[in-house]
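Lecture notes, unit on protein representations.

Consider one protein chain, 509 amino acids long.
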Amino acid sequence: MNKRRVAINMTAQLMAFAVNMLLGFILLPIIDRMIPNSFGFTDIANKFVQAAQIIVSALNTMASRFITIHIHRNDREEASQYFSSVFFANVLMAIVFMLPAMFVVVYLGQIFQVPAEASLPDVQMLFFFTFVNFLISITTSVFGVAPYSKDRLELSSIATILGEFTRLAVLFIAYFFFRPYLWYVGCASVASTVIQAAANLIFTKRLLPDMEIKRKNFRWAKVKELVALGAWNSITRLGQLLLDGLSTSIANIMISAAAMTTISISTQVPTVISNLMGTIAGVFNPQMTIAYAKEDKKQLLEIIASADRIMIFLISIPIAFLTVFGKSFFKLWIGETQDAETLYILALLNVGTLFVSASIQVLYHVFLITKRVKLNSVVILLSGILTTATVFILLETTSLGIYAIAGVSTFYGILRNLIFTPIYAARCLKVKWYTFYGDILLGLASIGAICLVALPFRLLIQIDGWIKLFAVGIAAGILALVVNFLIVLRANERRMVLKMIKKKLTHSH
């Protein structure tokens, strides 16, 4: 494993993630105060996009794998055919999606409850710009393959950071100098996507100069091949949408617009942690793909082992901190517009699956590179169907309300990640069935230990301001790093870290 490349890619990816996260945390309470009970519509608009991506992903999920493998096997002609075929097929899909997108925008008022605080035209414009953003993103998505294929994910991060700063500039100007509207969020996303697409196009020309979009390279056979394999990933996405993607829509239709916004806000922190998890796991995907392309199983397993430990080291801290300090955070962040305790309970219910899945996240890429996506897709779809059915039953027969919407998905997610994911990944890699259970136990031990060292801070200190929360977070964070240093890192890794610290201290003097 190229540790220097992993370090560069991870630093860049985390910087891009931090910019995106900060923008979201700053934006949400501002919009919730300016336009009450309406922010959930941004989440619902994005869920419509996720539903459309179920179809799009059938083609695009496998594109990076096939193009990367053919590049590293020096088969440029095949790689070029996949590249051009994906581009033209995406353009065709974007044209096809225009009609249903416009239908949703026009008849939005008949589909959802729009509160008096938000005007219907405003929400319609939000959906319009969100759909436009989706069409632009799928049309230009193939240009994101170049940094992936060359293991230069820091370039993707540069594109993301440029896009996020563009989004920030548009939102700042719109909300501070003009009357507040929801559709600014969608408009800013369009500007961000255009900038990112332009940057990725430049990187493609630099990294893959001979990879050009040519009609003569288009092959229906390539599209069919990608779709045949990628269709199973579409089933996976459908299952994931049923697992946790319909929560705000169900809350709006079956409870109220206020419940929709409460659930939407409660998912923000768990979503950030989940996205951080995906960001870190994604850093290892190119090297896993390249190792598989070179048929180096030993290297592949080494990458997975390192990725799991790095994931546990980093992700266990925010999961534990949400568990211990979540209620104080929501009180300070949202204020009086929402009930902090309700948000905290919902957030814990939403983050529950990550207690198990955080330590084995990279295993999902194993299914993709080994082309063993079918069974995983079926299992996720079945758990998604069970989740949706169970939620409707509980809403009709109990008084659990929004807690049922949040909790059922976690229940089935934990079962799936305990019983199926680690065993099937081991089978795909032809290793012992219990190989990855050690990482799950290690992750749980890390989260539990950090909760124990952080709990005294919450019990002994009254956190009534951001300064106290940050101070407590820093102090507890240092202890959490020490805990993970002792629990997660192996002896040789601890020696390496101590050596690096000693070297830094020596140079500073």
